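To make the argument concrete, we let one protein speak, a sequence paired with a row of structure tokens, as a model reads it:
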Amino acid sequence: MSMSAPRRLPRPAPSRFQDACYAALRLSGWLTVTAACVIGLWAAFFAVLGQFTFAGTMLHLSNLAARYVAAGAERQDGFRALFWAWSAGLFVVVGFFRRRALTDLVNQIKEKADGQE
């Protein structure tokens, strides 16, 4: 009795749903990493203000929080608008430097099942 090698079945072509799931996962990962970089840049900014010491960083954050709470509603709204504008600008800058990950995503989706474009 001889053992024959298992036959390989042809691999089905990926469906549009699979492509959409892949693209959604890659895009959500890109957005998450880019947002984490923005949070890291804010943390680095406060570390620089605190002269790279934990105590100095916490003092600056405490000062910012105390002034924010003591401010009126109009100044708080202005601060929030300024914070989100700077965060959006940082997101665009970080996204610009991470644009290669998005172009790789588009190129992989355009690729056919046989590996050719």
Remarks:
- Residues 16-49 form the longest helix (34 residues).
- Residues 26 and 78 are 35 Å apart (CA to CA).
- The chain has four helices and no strands.
- The chain has a mean pLDDT of 88.
